[in-house]
């Protein structure tokens, strides 16, 4: 049995992570954390697989080690990654500016069957999000929403995305401000 809080935490601006597989994270044995956390500006996360996480795939958000909030992350690029078979959700994002998600896949998530009205499923964006771009994203067969926007969101751009969720929600916008 894996016993770790997280597989990767990036807190250094300008970090590039390419071509890795992060698999079988058992983070809920310690605390509910994702396999990968991106908590710095100008990160590129490209051609990676995050699979079979007990909780979440990747979260990018503004947090310090002590848990207090800092300014939002900026210019994070998630390019051609898979965040699949995660116990809760594939991607969770809060507090970010100018972030881009291109060619990613968040499918078969929420296998632990968390409440679909809570942040489970393909990916959820909450908090303050500005200038978000999502292109060619696939969210299939999650046991909750495929794409979920819940918060104050400005200037979102979604192009050529697929969200197919039999028996549940596809794309959900609960509180959003588009410009």
Give an overview of the whole structure.
Helices cover 0% and strands 45% of the residues. The model is unreliable at 174-179 (pLDDT under 50). It is mostly beta strands and 179 residues long. Strands 1, 4, 7, 8, 11, 13, 16 and 19 form an eight-stranded parallel sheet that branches. A six-stranded parallel sheet has the order 2-5-9-12-14-17, with no helix packed on it. The protein contains no helices and 19 strands. The protein has strands at 8-10, 16-18, 21-23, 34-38, 44-46, 49-51, 56-60, 73-74, 77-79, 82-84, 89-97, 100-102, 121-130, 133-135, 138-140, 147-154, 157-159, 162-164, 171-175. The chain is globular and about 30 Å long.
Q: Concise description?
A:
This protein has 179 residues and is an all-beta fold.
The total of helices stands at 0
- Describe the biggest sheet? 8 strands, parallel
Kindly report how far apart the N and C termini lie: 47 Å
Mean of pLDDT: 82
Strand content: 35-45%
Roughly how many Å is the radius of gyration?
15 Å
What structural category characterises the helix and strand content?
mainly beta
Low-confidence stretches: 174-179
Estimated helix fraction: under 10%
Shape: globular
- The total of beta strands comes to 19
Order of helices and strands: EEEEEEEEEEEEEEEEEEE
